């Protein structure tokens, strides 16, 4: 079993240790502090799952996991994309580069992309540009990825506004 935590605002080492102790004290941990305030944390039960961190970028962690009892392996890339389109281009290029080295191994990419694929993933007046959507679509196409279907609410983020300023988006995906 493994757990991924995104969008953390815990940056003091004492707070990190306390959080780890209170959550899953006996599990293994990897925290990414290349972004502000520790953007991505991974934690896993090392009795059940082996995790090798292969690459860490400012918007992702790329690792190989191994289920010890089932003897299966999978590449997993955890995303916490930048809010801004310009730095997010670095993420798209990093995913393209990662995809060139993957052969005959399952690859799961998941997390908060801070981007939508098309207008159907937005409810309300959004400032998403067609350029941002086209860049995300291009990355999906170039890497050969297939967005997984989902059930339930189609939106994963809300701006906490009401009335005409209310905005819903699907930013998180697998």
TrEMBL record:
It comes from the Eukaryota. This is Endonuclease/exonuclease/phosphatase domain-containing protein.
């Amino acid at each position: 079993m493994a757990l991924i935590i995104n969008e953390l605002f815990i940056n003091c080492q004492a707070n990190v240790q306390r959080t780890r102790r209170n959550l899953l004290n006996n599990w293994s941990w990897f925290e990414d502090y290349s972004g502000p305030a520790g953007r991505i944390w991974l934690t896993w039960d090392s009795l059940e799952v082996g995790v090798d961190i292969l690459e860490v970028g400012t918007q992702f962690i790329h690792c190989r996991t191994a289920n010890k009892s089932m003897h299966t392996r999978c590449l997993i890339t955890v995303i916490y994309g930048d809010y801004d389109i310009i730095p997010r281009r670095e993420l798209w290029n990093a995913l393209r580069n990662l995809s060139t080295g993957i052969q005959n191994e399952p690859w799961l990419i998941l997390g908060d992309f801070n981007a939508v694929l098309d207008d159907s993933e937005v409810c309300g007046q959004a400032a998403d540009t067609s350029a941002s959507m086209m860049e995300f679509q291009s990355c999906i196409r170039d890497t050969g990825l297939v967005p997984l279907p989902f059930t339930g609410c189609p939106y994963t983020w809300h701006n906490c506004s009401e009335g005409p300023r209310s905005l819903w988006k699907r930013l998180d995906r697998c």
